[in-house]
Design brief:
The strands form 2 sheets. The chain has a 4-stranded antiparallel beta sheet with strand order 1-6-3-4, with no helix packed on it. A 4-stranded antiparallel beta sheet has the order 5-2-7-8, with no helix packed on it. It has strands at residues 11-16, 24-29, 39-46, 54-61, 66-70, 76-83, 88-93, 101-102. It is 0% helix and 47% strand. Strand 7 and strand 8 form a beta hairpin. It has a single domain, classed as Jelly Rolls, CATH 2.60.120.
């Protein structure tokens, strides 16, 4: 039987914007030497305080990739990240010209 790369993830964590009305999110893949260091990023948003989170889109990052997200008018945005090594950084900001706030 040939060797196969297993694409399962050990950790799945939700990162919500630290305050409401933050419209930009970014996830940086941090390169490491571990096997299967890919991460999967799912972006969600909520438009009202009683609304549930709505899935927007998904991206798989490899080798120092970056996932950028922008959702105008979102009350809250969320990055749901699946990884094996927690090899990433998560950032949020309100406006495009604001500095990034490091969440993890």
């Amino acid at each position: 039987m040939a060797n196969r790369k297993v694409l399962a993830y050990s950790h799945t964590i939700d990162y919500d914007s630290p305050s409401r009305w933050m419209y930009y999110g970014k996830v940086d893949h941090v390169t490491n030497s571990n096997e299967n260091s890919d991460i999967q990023v799912n972006w969600y948003y909520r438009t009202c305080s009683v609304c549930s989170m709505n899935f927007d889109w998904q991206e798989t990052l490899t080798v120092a990739g970056v996932s950028n997200y922008h959702r105008s008018g979102a009350r809250r945005i969320r990055a749901k990240i699946s990884s094996n090594w927690k090899n990433y950084h998560v950032y949020f900001r309100k406006w495009e010209t604001d500095p990034w706030i490091h969440d993890y």
